[in-house]
Amino acid sequence: MMNRPEAGQFPPPPSLPPPPPPEAPQFDIDSAAKEESRRRRSERVRVERRHRWATMEQREAAAGASAAGDPEADENAVWGGGGVGGHHCVVRRRHGGRGAAVPGRRWEAVEHQQRQTAKERQQREAALAAMEAAWGARADTLAAEADALATQLEAQMEEEEEVEAEEEEDNDFEWSDDDGPHPDEAADQQRALVESFESEKKLQNMNKELPELFSMLKAAEIEIKKEHQVLMVNKTTSFKKQGKSKGKFKKGGKKAATPPVKPKWP
């Protein structure tokens, strides 16, 4: 008799890894066209089956009514009845008044739909090819521009490195008095001489213009004095004329008294 293992004697079985996630469905033009064709075919079969059963029921009903003596039922029996596949369809009358569809018309519609689908697929493929070509040309242009910019940047960086190296060499060189005046100091001295010469020239020009300015100021002062005298004379004359004309001023500047008016009695 075998001994059963006790609880916890054996380790639990390892857990299985989770299943991989399902891949995203990829769109395929051919498979989509096949699926659409299959769906339309099944829909067409259902419509035809329903139409056939309806036609059979209409014919059976028309046959029963004809046996009962209904004149309209005889016409429905000949032309296929009203409604779907009924006598209102002229094309069905031309084909013997049968309730079935016109021979070949259904397959013509199917072929037309297939040709239209193929044409649309070709147009989409041509548009995609043109778009891919345009994007490829654009990518080539951008790559060429990027290469040109990279080359230009490398050349610019090399020039900057050369300039920095030259500046470092110039800074490392120590100028001594035996070598003569420093170029920067000589340039500063030359600039100071030029500025002093220009300032001296400006002072000379100002000294030449000063006598003319003084003479102009004196002439303006004389003109102002003359105008002031004329204004004062005109003001005094206007005051005198005003006092004589109105009779309001006497000696001493007081106002003259007006005599009372005497009434005239009869």
UniProtKB/TrEMBL annotation:
Coiled coil (residue ranges): none
Ranges of biased composition (kind: Basic residues): 39-53, 241-254
Disordered: annotated segments: 1-79, 95-124, 146-200, 235-266
Comp. bias intervals (Acidic residues): 156-178
Ranges of biased composition (kind: Basic and acidic residues): 105-124
Signal sequence region: none
Stretches with biased composition (Pro residues): 10-24
Residue stretches of biased makeup (Low complexity): 61-70, 146-155
Protein name, per record: Uncharacterized protein
Organism encoding this protein: Lolium multiflorum
